[in-house]
Amino acid sequence: MKRRPLIISGICLLLLTTFAVTGAAQTAASAQQAVPVDLTKAASGSLPLQIVVLLTLLSFIPAILISMTCFTRLIVVFHFLRQALGTQEAPNNQILIGLALFLTLFVMSPALTRINSEALQPMMSGQISQTEAVTRALVPLRSYMLKQTREHDLALFIRLSDSPRPRTAAEVPTTALIPAYMISELKTAFQIGFVLFIPFLVIDMAVSSVLLSMGMMQLPPVIVSMPLKLLLFVMVDGWYLIVGSLVKSVL
């Protein structure tokens, strides 16, 4: 007896679902009879295809940003600078990433302008296809990466891929250029980081020697050296020098 209300409710729900599906099918059939289908427009599918391509490209933006721009060099150098100063989380990651992003936008603005005028705008106006737009967009990026990539790094990946030796820059495969560019950027960033560490390391060693000679072994040297490093960094206008040198190195 207790199950009877549940059975009745289930039957009513099944009937309502059946009526809803039948009504939707009848509505769809009448709509198909009333509105003729343009098979030519449906077959082209230009707008949906453009949306799919655009969403796919948007998903690759983080990878493109890290692997094909100067963002890697900037963020690694800023990380080394923070470690050299000994300030732990100041400036924090959000500030460093934001600064690196806007510096990347500033440095890559000529290439982005070319991509917009030669690839994006013609594709949006329907003058070229998506494939041709991607090919055109790679030209300024490849030109920038070839300028910053070391020859022996590029030769390494060409040799590992068993590709023939390219005679011109246009024959360099993009699949070999991108990793070669990335390890070149990492090497340059580590070199800059090493140079940044030297003056702050001298201060740490001097402070440790003075405290040890004074017998103050219980006092951590970082408590005394960090204010001195910050004072030195501010006096020489460190952010101006570092950002200026980084931008000049990638232009």
Structural account:
This protein starts with a helix and ends with a helix. Helix content is 80%, strand content 0%. α5 packs antiparallel against α6 and α9 (151-160) packs across α10 (174-213). It has helices spanning 4-34, 39-44, 46-59, 61-67, 71-85, 93-107, 109-124, 130-148, 151-160, 174-213, 221-235, 238-250. The model is unreliable at 1-45 (pLDDT under 50). With 251 residues, the protein is mainly α. It contains 12 helices and no strands.
Q: Which series of helices and strands comes N to C? A: HHHHHHHHHHHH
Termini separation: 84 Å
Strand content: under 5%
Sheet/helix structural class: mainly alpha
Number of helices: 12
Mean pLDDT: 76
Using only CA atoms, what is the Rg? Answer: 30 Å
**Could you say which overall geometry the principal axes of the C-alpha atoms support?**
elongated
Task: Count all strands and give the number.
Answer: 0
